[in-house]
Amino acid sequence: MDTRISSIASDLRAGQTPPEVSVRTFLGWFDAQRRRYRIVQNIRDELAKEGVRTVPDFETVWIDAPIRFVLSEGNGVFVNFEPKVPGEEPLKAPETVPPGRWETREATYKVGRLAAANQGIVSVPPDKSVAQAVTIMMLGGYSQLPVMTDEETVLGMLSWRSVGTRTVLNRPATLVRDAMEPHHEVRSDVSIFDAIQAIVANDYVLVRGVDGRITGIVTANDLSLQFHDLTEPFLLLGEIENLVRNMIGNAFSADELKTACNPADASRVAYVETVADLSFGEYIRLLQLPQNWSRLGIDIEREVFCQSLDAVRKIRNDVMHFDPDGIEPVELQQLRQFTRFMRQLASVRV
């Protein structure tokens, strides 16, 4: 494990303040790019061993957000030891049960984890001309601009709607302050689901950080892109599984499918009746046997196919644990390639 945590702990105990790092950099210390559940647990174990934690928690913020290191608070049990009274047994510290490895974590997917909520904003002051603001909107491709006097104070929002409404009513404004409309904002620590309705209704929300500053703007388009990034792996895995089932579904009887199960698990064996009841691992165990592979009637290298399917299985395990950071680009590419491969096989076999 990376020795930097140990060095940071030593610095903290010596009264020094270690430099802040981004979550992405911090993950890199552990040869990781995403906050997978196993990686997170390993990191937490290492932090706990050294008596260190991150502020904010490295798992709950945007992946490029800065974090700092502090010493953890003690978890010992406080016992009020009273002076020994003659004739009485002295008080003893209660026996403690060693805690498990699991650390209670934030379960809510917060707005602050979205990239758009952390990438800053372009704003205009209230005394700028509408013509200047519209030019900025056109050049930047913005649908709206917050009207602000500093990083914390939002006076309103200038949008194509607010400008257009005044124009069609023959009440054009010269200054931004006269063309702005009320703005909509949420705190960075609210659930993304609590913010969705506001985003859908208003096309955006401004995001205010815990320090009071406006840190970004999340638009309906940002939600669409985030939804695509999160759902594509699920959809690809679903398609792959259906294509695998179609390939082997009619080639084996129920009794033959049961041979892919662990024979020691009688309830599992009894449960399997069709190919839809098999797991990814059981697909592989079924197809690894040459006599079963030959039943498919395809001239594809069995070992290569099973290795590729096993790679998909491993990606699936991580995807099903749901990591808002998404999967790594190379893994997404693997899913896309294997999906295309299975589609090609299916098109020829029809």
From TrEMBL:
Domain CBS: 117-175
Record-linked PROSITE patterns: CBS
Superkingdom field: Bacteria
Keywords: CBS domain
One Pfam family named in its UniProt record: CBS
SUPFAM superfamilies, per the entry: CBS-domain pair
Listed InterPro entries: CBS_dom (IPR000644), CBS_dom_sf (IPR046342)
Identification of the protein by name: CBS domain-containing protein
